């Protein structure tokens, strides 16, 4: 088990280095960084001085090593547009994005799994057919459209929920702000998290349904019936547990996407998270932020994948053996 | 004669499909006495397994029991509500499936599966159920059961898993065990052990067995009586010695003739020409008549009903004629 974790950690570091290389390459190939910093009237001497002080005359490898070294210490440089450390900018906005992603993922799981189980067990009921139809809409409608529709119905027409922002937030410690502790913060979370989680919810529902149907056909479910186990024990103890391995995989990967693609939802709801920051960075060619964001998302994906691999072993005893052997 | 454990009368099972209603089982009747082993043989698709599923109440839509009755110790069970039938399954009728590699849930230890089944049917505490599970595993011949009980199915070999399946089928002391091709998926070397085990355990407990198989060797060694099925009907049913040595029904004759024998002469094996009709195209009259070498006019019109003959029942007009001749 330990060997497996170490092996995966080494692989993860490889992935992060590759992403760091791409992020670093952006600095080199998207224009001259010096131009981004100095004013137009700067003399060639001034430019050369800045170039030297930034270490841009060093060999490529040395510069890359320096970038990685700093990134490892969470130093991603200074944002061109805000003239502030990138780490501070991202850190300020990270709680908003992570809370939104967390609530979306919980929504997707808590609604998606029961709906999937229901549609598999009561395949012919009208409610199951309704869920199926709704899930088709959820899978095919683009996120921004769902967001705008929700805003139109619940914020504009009915006026029940706020249409933008995080509401009141409470500061916890030095670096975390939360919307979980105020009524307006919780209300503000509802529409964006439904918007962001809708696709994942329908995906999970369809996955659980398909897996359940598959598992219900297996011999061990037939044998469980022949042993006279209760319907409840068969459906939830035996069948559902066997559907969980693929569900964990997809949920894990989707959690990464939820964080990475919160950009659209954050834009629609003016959510003060990392996605909005990244979009501003793209518009202003603020490369330090873009590069740091890229690395951060890669880091999250790597961590989530590692967690998913470890979860498999918890759910499926057969994998524990292969994991041990690996 | 004592009351039979299982009594099936004129059982009909149909499958409703888009192309019409298929009769998988059409008028099957048989009894199993306490402690008796009834072998059920026939080609694939003859309705052997469906009969087993019907008895334990596991016919799934689009299949349905369309007629007849099934009695367990005289009590009718084919029309019980699902919850009452569930209580019978595993408690009074146990079942052993064909493939031990897929019959056990891979995510639970064998102990968890045994304890769950035991506690579903018997009022035992978790500790008592575990004790009982260990005893059962020892009885079915799993070495070091105290340790193995916490193993997962994938840690057992195929033969060992089938032993676990047998323990599961027997864990609530059922009156009847339905063994659906219990050795088909196993190594030849293990088959005999498993059959011996089933036979010994059921004999010790006085449990009746319905042994579904297409392996005549297994039947000849294990069963007390045998039912030969063809196209969802019983062609011949009687004591195993008589049916194997001197079959009456032409289909049974063909079937027994197709068994290679060790001491026999190296003649060609008998072959039954043609193949069993599809369920959608069962011929009128006797279902076997298009393939029967001794068929005559009446066979294609009149469906033969089972006749008592030499201590067995045979559904064939040949013996009706014989009876008529003998009477005259």
From TrEMBL, chain A:
Domain spans labelled ABC transmembrane type-1: 94-312
Stored Pfam families: BPD_transp_1, BPD_transp_1_N
Bilayer topology annotation: Multi-pass membrane protein
InterPro entries linked to this entry: BPD_transp_1_N (IPR045621), MetI-like (IPR000515), MetI-like_sf (IPR035906)
UniProt xrefs under Gene3D superfamilies: MetI-like (1.10.3720.10)
Cell location: Cell membrane
Main location group: membrane
GO biological process: transmembrane transport
UniProt entry keywords in alphabetical sequence: Cell membrane, Membrane, Transmembrane, Transmembrane helix, Transport
GO cellular component: plasma membrane
TM ranges: 12-30, 100-121, 133-155, 175-199, 244-269, 289-315
Family indicated by similarity: Belongs to the binding-protein-dependent transport system permease family.
Record's protein name: Peptide/nickel transport system permease protein
Organism: Chelatococcus composti
Automatic annotation (TrEMBL), chain B:
Subcellular location: Cell inner membrane
Span of domain ABC transporter: 8-256
Major place of residence: membrane
SUPFAM superfamilies given in the database record: P-loop containing nucleoside triphosphate hydrolases
Membrane topology: Peripheral membrane protein
Claim: Cell membrane is one of the keywords in the record: yes
GO molecular function, one term: ATP hydrolysis activity
One Pfam short name: oligo_HPY
Keywords: ATP-binding, Cell membrane, Membrane, Nucleotide-binding, Transport
InterPro entries given in the database record: AAA+_ATPase, ABC_Ni/Peptide_Import, ABC_transporter-like_ATP-bd, ABC_transporter-like_CS, Oligopep_ABC_C, P-loop_NTPase
Single GO biological process annotation from the record: peptide transport
Domain of life: Bacteria
Keyword Transferase on entry: no
Gene3D superfamilies in the record: P-loop containing nucleotide triphosphate hydrolases (3.40.50.300)
GO cellular component: plasma membrane
PANTHER family membership: DIPEPTIDE TRANSPORT ATP-BINDING PROTEIN DPPD, OLIGOPEPTIDE TRANSPORT ATP-BINDING PROTEIN APPD
NCBIfam families documented for this protein: oligo_HPY (TIGR01727)
Protein family: Belongs to the ABC transporter superfamily.
Protein name, entry field: Peptide/nickel transport system ATP-binding protein
């Amino acid at each position: 088990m330990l060997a497996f974790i170490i092996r995966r950690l080494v692989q993860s570091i490889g992935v992060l280095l590759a992403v760091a290389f791409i992020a670093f390459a952006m600095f080199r190939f998207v224009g001259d960084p010096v131009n981004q910093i100095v004013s137009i009237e700067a003399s060639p001497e001034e430019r050369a001085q800045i170039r030297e002080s930034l270490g841009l005359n060093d060999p490529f490898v040395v510069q890359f090593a320096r970038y990685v070294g700093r990134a490892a210490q969470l130093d991603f440089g200074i944002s061109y547009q805000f003239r502030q450390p990138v780490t501070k900018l991202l850190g300020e906005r990270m709680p908003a994005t992570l809370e939104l992603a967390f609530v979306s993922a919980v929504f997707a799981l808590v609604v998606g799994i029961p709906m999937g189980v229901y549609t598999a067990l009561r395949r012919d009921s009208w409610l199951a057919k309704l869920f199926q139809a709704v899930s088709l809409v959820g899978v095919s409608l683009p996120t921004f459209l769902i967001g705008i529709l929700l805003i139109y119905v619940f914020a504009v027409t009915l006026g029940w929920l706020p249409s933008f922002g995080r509401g009141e937030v409470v500061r916890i410690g030095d670096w975390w702000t939360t919307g979980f502790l105020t009524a307006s913060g919780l209300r503000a979370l509802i529409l964006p998290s439904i918007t962001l989680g809708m696709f994942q919810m329908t995906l999970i529902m369809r996955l659980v349904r398909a897996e359940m149907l598959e598992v219900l056909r297996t011999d061990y479910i037939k044998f469980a019936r022949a042993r006279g186990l209760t319907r409840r024990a068969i459906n939830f103890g035996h069948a559902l547990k066997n559907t969980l391995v693929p569900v964990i995989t997809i949920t894990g990967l989707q959690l990464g996407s939820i964080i990475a693609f919160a950009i659209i939802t954050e834009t629609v709801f003016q959510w003060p998270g990392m996605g909005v920051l990244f979009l501003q960075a793209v518009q202003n060619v603020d490369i330090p932020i873009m590069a740091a964001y890229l690395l951060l998302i890669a880091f999250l994906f790597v961590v989530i994948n590692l967690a998913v691999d470890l979860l498999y072993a918890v759910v499926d005893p057969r994998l524990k053996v292969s994991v041990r052997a690996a | 004669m004592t009351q039979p454990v299982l009594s099936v009368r004129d059982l009909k099972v149909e499958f409703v499909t888009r192309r019409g209603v298929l009769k998988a089982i059409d008028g099957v009747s048989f009894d199993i006495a306490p402690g008796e082993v009834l072998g059920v043989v026939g080609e694939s698709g003859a309705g052997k397994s469906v009969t087993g599923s019907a008895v334990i109440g596991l016919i799934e839509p689009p299949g349905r029991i369309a007629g007849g009755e099934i009695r367990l110790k005289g009590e009718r069970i084919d029309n019980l509500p699902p919850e009452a039938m569930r209580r019978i399954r595993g408690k009074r009728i146990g079942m052993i499936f064909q493939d031990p590699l897929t019959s056990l849930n891979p995510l639970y230890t064998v102990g968890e599966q045994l304890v769950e089944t035991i506690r579903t049917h018997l009022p035992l505490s978790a500790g008592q159920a575990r004790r009982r599970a260990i005893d059962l595993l020892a009885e079915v011949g799993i070495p070091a059961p105290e340790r193995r009980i916490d193993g997962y199915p994938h840690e057992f070999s195929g033969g060992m898993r089938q032993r676990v399946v047998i323990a599961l089928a027997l864990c609530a002391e059922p009156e009847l065990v339905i063994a659906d091709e219990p050795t088909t998926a196993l190594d030849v070397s293990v088959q005999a052990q498993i059959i011996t085990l089933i036979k010994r355990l059921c004999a010790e407990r006085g449990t009746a067995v319905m042994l579904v198989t297409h392996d005549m060797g297994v039947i000849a060694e294990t069963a007390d009586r045998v039912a030969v099925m063809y196209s969802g009907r019983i062609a011949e049913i009687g004591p195993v010695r008589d049916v194997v040595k001197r079959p009456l029904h032409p289909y049974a004759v063909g079937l027994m003739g197709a068994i290679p024998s060790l001491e026999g002469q190296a003649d060609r094996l008998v072959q039954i020409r043609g193949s069993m009709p599809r369920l959608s195209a069962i011929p009128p009259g006797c279902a076997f008549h298009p393939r029967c070498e001794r068929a005559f006019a009446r066979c294609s019109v009149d469906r033969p009903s089972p006749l008592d003959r030499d201590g067995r029942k045979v559904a064939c007009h040949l013996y009706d004629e014989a009876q008529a001749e003998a009477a005259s």
